[in-house]
Design a protein that fits this description.
about 260 residues; mainly beta; Lipocalin
Length: about 260
């Protein structure tokens, strides 16, 4: 009971620290932690961080799925979408930030207590303003390991992910003088800062704590994560922590009722 209270306290503490959504070039997506117990299990989850307010619309959505096709082997498909709109931003009217990412990963698991996955993902981050458009495509290789425990009412997992994030294409367009059209530039700018990021790889270590509370196959899931860069990066990265909350469903092969 003391350990559970400590875990809940840490969750609440990090929630206040990490809930803001910022317009960063890189975003750490939620870590999928199925912790399968056997073959032919199918799991789905949706995690949301909604920061919509009077002066802005901002949210992030993580969609997760996983399937165990053999006794000790499975794979996962995950998608992340982030949107932020600032009608009263400093740069212009109706600035928009968009971030989308998709990944796939096969992996090995052992009886609901350990798993390891290696995967690949692709994505795009964009910033639209009245006078410019900045877009950057990227890919990511990653390997993640999780230890945890499943039960009827509570699932607990601790994960560590190593991510290698690389920009493979950037594009910047801006208005020149009093022209009404946007012209493509040979240089790339992000929020007024000139960046040289094409072809560069940025390694990150990303630990996360996941807690699922509910009954049997239907549970509320919350995840706290932190993302540390392993080398100096030449772009702003001020959202090192995140907290996402959502619903998790496990479709077991024995077809037990959810309720």
């Amino acid at each position: 009971m003391r350990k559970l209270k400590l875990i809940l306290f840490i969750f609440i503490l990090f929630t206040f620290y990490s809930c803001n959504i910022s317009s960063n070039l890189y975003k750490a997506n939620s870590i999928n932690t199925p912790l399968f117990k056997g073959k032919k299990e199918f799991q789905m989850a949706i995690l949301i961080n909604d920061q919509t307010a009077k002066d802005q619309k901002a949210y992030s959505v993580d969609l997760q799925s996983a399937y165990s096709f053999q006794k000790n082997f499975g794979f996962m498909l995950n998608f992340q979408n982030i949107y932020q709109n600032k009608p009263e931003a400093n740069y212009s009217v109706n600035d928009e930030f968009r971030f989308s990412y998709f990944e796939i990963a096969p992996g090995y698991f052992k009886n609901g207590i350990f798993e390891i996955y290696a995967g690949y993902g692709i994505g795009k981050t964009s910033f639209f303003s009245k006078n410019s458009i900045a877009e950057a495509n990227f890919n990511k290789f990653f390997i993640q390991s999780t230890i945890g425990k499943n039960s009827k009412f509570i699932d607990f997992a601790f994960s560590v992910r190593a991510s290698f994030f690389e920009f493979n294409k950037t594009n910047f367009k801006e208005k020149i003088g009093n022209e009404d059209v946007l012209r493509e530039s040979d240089e790339f700018y992000w929020f007024g800062n000139k960046l040289e990021i094409d072809g560069k790889t940025y390694p990150f270590i990303e630990p996360a704590l996941t807690l699922k509370l509910g009954y049997k196959q239907l549970k509320i899931v919350g995840q706290l994560g932190i993302s540390f860069s392993l080398k100096d990066i030449n772009f702003d990265y001020n959202q090192k922590a995140y907290f996402n909350l959502g619903i998790h469903i496990n479709f077991l092969k024995n077809k037990n009722k959810i309720f």
